[in-house]
Design brief:
The chain is of the alpha/beta class. The chain has twelve helices and 16 strands. The strands form four sheets. A nine-stranded mixed β-sheet has the order 8-5-4-9-1-10-11-2-12, with helices on both faces. It has a three-stranded antiparallel β-sheet with strand order 14-15-16, with no helix packed on it. Helix 6 runs parallel beside helix 8. The radius of gyration is 21 Å and the shape is globular.
């Protein structure tokens, strides 16, 4: 087949839909490709419901937009209200509170001390299951799942390599520094950048001047290029977790000066738009690298935000609330799936089935990689909370029902949250009972700031 008919990205003359007039699923996996699809999961940080361009005309994010509008947009995908618990669910297939994670705050988990904000070691993580199926596994960007002993770090939990930071954030997108790490005083402005491998051990990163999204994009392209050259017959899983658009709300001056943000009136949202644009640039580079290596044709790309956007610099319209709340603006998280392997009737569609960030665990491990359900169910001390969405996504039926009928957003346990669940308890952090069943949502207790930021209007 001529080059003009290969699966491409920004330079491809055929759209994904047109491509399927020429290629069938049976011809997508060609000589030199692995027997199982590659998987790239992009985890954005604090991206609001309306912070991508295909929904919000103020934002310029053409690469992410194309993946979203040519793939399947998951319009009822839920996460936890904050970072670490959502990432824990992604990696374990469990609700965060089933791992003792009720919040990002260490005070919210009083029985966890040295394993601060960590996934307990008796859970088998997603990359560990994928490695059993022959996958090469790589993590780039934000970890936030434990580091106080090396047993909790990525390359001791199933990843062949890790390049990124351990904490919730760094205090500078260029210097990669953090003055306090989860209560452990590491000294003023200590560097939280690590470059580790399962074979080479834990090592510090050496760069202290490159913007983080660019740095992570560089490493992702490098890993993809190396994999194609040295292990083309091995399936590949990459967890690419950007810092953008999390605090400290910093963007390159070049992206604040170009025409992608000049039309935005508020300075705060200009920076947000530049953060999204910078991440989008790197997503484009990564997808181009997959395409030029010949890997894109057999790749499944998932995207999700770890929670809703913060009310001070993001947009979650029409939902109330934002990050740190259990309103829909805090837990209805942007998500989509793109792949040439998806059936043509599903390309460019929305799916309104109920989904949770934990479901990526079964969808990738069981649905795509072929891990047995029995093995996946044994990947932790408690019953799983995930469902496998892959058969539903691979159905020609655009309105296929979700295998999930409910999402338990939060349980209130007096053991972890003594006292009444009011706005003043637990230092203003909310501790309610919240569940979604079908089209109905029940909330008991204070669930956070209920403000709505109107479309195209931001605080600040």
């Amino acid at each position: 087949m001529s080059g003009s008919h290969l699966v491409g990205y920004r330079t491809m003359p055929l759209t994904t839909q047109e491509l399927f007039l020429c290629l069938s699923i049976h011809t997508v996996l060609v000589l030199g490709s692995p027997s199982k699809p590659h998987i790239l999961h992009i985890m954005a940080d604090d991206t609001g419901w309306n912070d991508l361009g295909y929904k919000n005309k103020l934002i310029r994010s053409p690469n992410l937009d194309r993946l979203a509008v040519e793939g399947i947009r998951l319009t009822r995908h839920h996460a936890f209200k904050v970072c670490s618990p959502s990432r824990s669910s992604f990696h374990t297939g469990r609700y965060a509170f089933n791992m003792g994670l009720y919040d990002n705050s260490p005070a919210a988990v009083p029985w966890i001390k040295i394993t601060d904000q960590a996934v307990p070691l008796n859970f088998t993580l997603l990359p560990q299951l994928l490695k059993q199926q022959g996958y090469a596994t790589h993590a780039i960007g934000k970890w936030h799942l434990g580091y106080t002993t090396k047993a909790y770090t990525p390359t001791h939990r199933g990843y062949d390599s890790f390049f990124g930071y351990y904490n919730a954030m760094t205090e500078d997108y260029w210097a990669h520094t953090h003055s306090v790490a989860s209560g452990c005083d590491l000294g003023d402005h200590s560097v939280d950048l690590h470059d580790s491998s399962a074979t080479g051990g834990l090592k510090p990163g050496t760069d202290n001047s490159t913007y983080e999204a660019t740095l992570f994009g560089d490493r992702a392209v490098q890993v993809i290029t190396s994999h194609r050259a040295n292990a083309s017959d091995i399936p590949f899983f990459m967890y690419l977790a950007f810092h953008n658009e999390h605090d400290p709300h910093q963007a390159p001056l070049s992206n604040l000066s170009d025409d992608r943000v000049g039309h935005i009136k508020t300075d705060v949202y200009k920076v947000t738009a530049a953060l999204i644009a910078t991440m989008d640039d790197q997503v484009g580079r990564v997808v181009d690298a997959l395409n030029s290596s010949g890997m894109l044709r057999s790749t499944v790309i998932g995207f999700s935000s770890d929670n809703g956007g913060p009310l001070d610099h993001a947009n979650n319209f029409p939902f109330r609330g934002g990050k740190h709340t259990f309103w829909e603006g805090g837990v209805r998280a942007e998500a989509f799936v793109w792949s040439p392997l998806l059936p043509p009737p599903r390309l460019g569609t929305e799916w309104a089935g109920l989904a949770h960030v934990a479901d990526w665990f079964y969808t990738y491990a069981v649905g795509i990689a072929g891990v047995s359900m029995a093995t996946a169910q044994q990947a932790g001390p408690f019953a799983h909370d995930a469902v496998n969405l892959w058969p539903t996504l691979m159905s020609d039926n655009v309105t296929a029902a979700s295998p999930r009928t409910e999402v338990v957003h939060m349980v209130h346990s007096p053991l972890y949250y003594p006292g009444n669940c009011t706005m003043d308890c637990w230092n203003s952090r909310n501790c309610p009972q919240v569940i979604t069943v079908g089209d109905m949502k029940l909330s008991i207790g204070y669930i956070g700031d209920p403000r709505i930021v109107p479309l195209n209007v931001t605080a600040g």
